[in-house]
Amino acid sequence: MKYTDYERRIISMIGYFFLREADSDYDLCFKMLDHMDITHLRVYKKIGKNRPDIIYITLARPGLLIGSKGKIIKALEKHIEEETGRKSTFYIIENNIKRILYPMTIKEAMEVGGF
After folding, report:
1. CATH no. for residue 101?
2. How many domains does the chain have?
3. Angle of helix 71-84 relative to helix 5-21, nearest 10 degrees?
4. Per-residue b or e along 45-78, where b marks 16 or more CB atoms closer than 10 Å to that residue's CB
5. Cα atoms in the 13 Å half-sphere on the side-chain side of 73
6. Can you tell me the distance from the alpha carbon of 56 to that of 106, in angstroms, rounded to the nearest whole number?
7. Per-residue pLDDT tens digits for 61-106
8. What are the strands, taking DSSP E only, across 1-115?
9. What pTM did the predictor assign?
10. Containing domain of residue 50, as a range?
């Protein structure tokens, strides 16, 4: 996937945001991002005053990005606005193919009536 310069800048800001959330602990930051399993990001930069950029992000565990009551995603939007001077809105797409693709354990299959 080829990203634009602006998309690379947004991706970098997301990384630095989570590094700050992890109190500069790189291992914790990498673990947090790895658990989210972000697979795709696309930014549509809107032209015009007060029109937010649209950031589409595809990940396996959207709850980790959203946070309790939207706390993390709101803070991330604020962080990006402070860094770019532009408002942004996230559209989150859940990519749960791994949960579907990987076979269930016998116990899980029995719980859902698969065996």
Report:
1. 3.30.300.20
2. 1
3. 130
4. beeeeeeebebebbbbebebbbeeeeebbeebbe
5. 18
6. 36
7. 899 999 999 999 999 999 999 999 989 999 999 887 766 666 666 6
8. 38-44, 53-59, 88-94
9. 0.78
10. 5-111
